[in-house]
Design a protein that fits this description.
Strand content: under 5%
Number of helices: 3
Shape: globular
Distance between the termini: 24 Å
Number of strands: 0
Structural class: mainly alpha
Length: about 90
């Protein structure tokens, strides 16, 4: 962790918490493009803290939302075509 109380992205786990926070933000919107019932629980206070303290922590939520919607669409389309295994490395 950085000096003082400032929390920054220091690990893959921190990145996962930030992404979970972004997903929770979208899920809470009345016109959400997707609902992730586990995102808020996963993000917890640490995910929100990371988003708040990073200069770009909340402003980049749109990229997480867009990526989620696009990947979901691709997976659903492929599943409809008979693909039964998807490996997402990112």
């Amino acid at each position: 962790m950085a000096t003082g109380s400032k929390r920054t992205l220091e690990s893959v786990s921190d990145t996962a918490l930030l992404v979970a926070h972004h997903r929770a933000m979208e899920s809470a919107r009345p016109d959400a493009l997707f609902k992730d019932p586990y995102a808020q629980r996963l993000a917890g206070e640490h995910g929100e803290e990371i988003a708040r303290k990073l200069l770009w922590g909340r402003r980049t939520a749109w990229s997480t939302v867009t990526r989620t919607v696009l990947i979901d669409e691709i997976v659903l389309r492929l599943a409809g075509q008979g693909v039964d295994t998807v490996l997402n490395l990112a």
